[in-house]
Design brief:
CATH architecture: 4-Layer Sandwich
Order of helices and strands: EHEHEHEEEHEEEHEEEE
Number of strands: 13
Shape: globular
Strand order of the largest sheet: 5-6-7-10-12-11
Distance between the termini: 6 Å
Helix content: 10-25%
Strand content: 15-25%
Largest sheet: 6 strands, mixed
CATH superfamily: Metallo-dependent phosphatases
Structural class: alpha/beta
CATH topology: Purple Acid Phosphatase, chain A, domain 2
Number of domains: 1
Length: about 230
C-alpha cells in the first residue's frame, strides 16, 4: 500500500519539544511509532516535509534513524523547517553512509508506485500583491521543480502530487501551481505545513477535478494516511 503523512517535526537531536504547540503533540514520536505498525515492510510512505528540527545532517541523524526504522520505504520531500537540507545528493550520500537505505528523496524527479507516478516539491507562499523579489524567485523555482517532477512521470495515467505548502489556503491562491496540476492531468494533491487553528482555513475536497487533502501529522492524528 501507499501512505502519506507530513510534518513529523522530530527533535531527538535538538531541543525543540513539540508539546509547547498543544497537548496533542505530547509524546508524538511514540504515537507515530505505534501508528506506523499498520504499515508493512512492503509498503511505501511519502513524508511531505518538515521531518526534523535539526540544523545539520549530523544533528538529524537520530531523527532519520527513527524514520528509517519505521516500516517500509520512505520517500521524503523538503519542508520549510528542514534547515539541514543543502542538496539532495548530499543528503542521499549521508543516508547511504549511515545505512539509512529505506529513505529516498523526491526532488526534481518522480517515483513510481506500480504504474502511479509520485510527483512533488516543497512549494511556497507568494502573495499576489506586494510579493518580495525573493518570494517571487523562490516560487518560480518551486513551480519549475514541480513541472520537472511531472515531466519525469512521462505518460503515466495516474499522477499524484505531494507538496509541503498548500497550493491555496484561505485567500491565498497559487495560479502557477494549480495550473500545472490541471495541465498534467493530476487528480490528487496532498499537502502539509498547516497546524493548529490554521487547519480551519485549509481546503479539503475536490476543486475543478482535483482532490486536495491536508496530511500534516497533527491533523491526521499522527497516523499515516492510505493513498492506494
Amino acid at each position: 500500500m501507499l501512505y502519506t503523512i507530513g510534518d513529523l517535526h522530530l527533535s531527538f537531536g535538538a531541543d525543540k519539544p513539540m508539546d509547547v504547540f498543544g497537548a496533542e503533540w505530547e509524546n508524538h514520536a511514540e504515537k507515530l511509532r505505534e501508528n506506523f505498525k499498520a504499515v508493512s515492510p512492503e509498503d511505501t510512505t511519502v513524508i511531505a516535509g518538515d521531518m526534523t528540527w535539526g540544523m545539520s545532517l549530523n544533528d538529524c541523524l537520530e531523527d532519520f534513524r527513527f524514520i528509517h526504522e519505521l516500516p517500509g520505504k520512505k520517500i521524503i520531500l523538503k519542508g520549510n523547517h528542514d534547515f539541514w537540507w543543502s542538496t539532495a545528493s548530499k543528503a542521499m550520500s549521508f543516508f547511504r553512509e549511515h545505512g539509512l537505505d529505506s529513505i529516498e528523496i523526491l526532488n526534481n524527479n518522480c517515483f513510481f508506485y506500480g504504474e502511479t507516478a509520485l510527483c512533488g516539491t516543497r512549494g511556497w507562499f507568494c502573495p499576489r500583491e506586494n510579493a518580495s523579489d525573493q518570494d517571487k524567485k523562490i516560487m518560480a523555482r518551486e513551480v519549475q521543480r514541480l513541472e520537472t517532477s511531472l515531466k519525469a512521470a512521462g505518460e503515466a495515467e495516474r499522477k499524484i502530487v505531494f507538496l509541503h505548502y498548500p497550493p491555496f489556503y484561505g485567500k491565498y491562491y497559487s495560479d502557477e501551481m494549480v495550473e500545472l496540476l490541471h495541465r498534467y492531468g493530476v487528480r490528487e494533491c496532498y499537502y502539509g505545513h498547516i497546524h493548529g487553528a490554521g487547519r480551519l482555513l485549509a481546503f479539503e475536497g475536490e476543486a475543478d477535478g482535483v482532490s486536495y487533502r491536508l496530511i500534516s501529522a497533527d491533523h491526521v492524528g499522527f497516523k499515516p494516511v492510505r493513498v492506494i
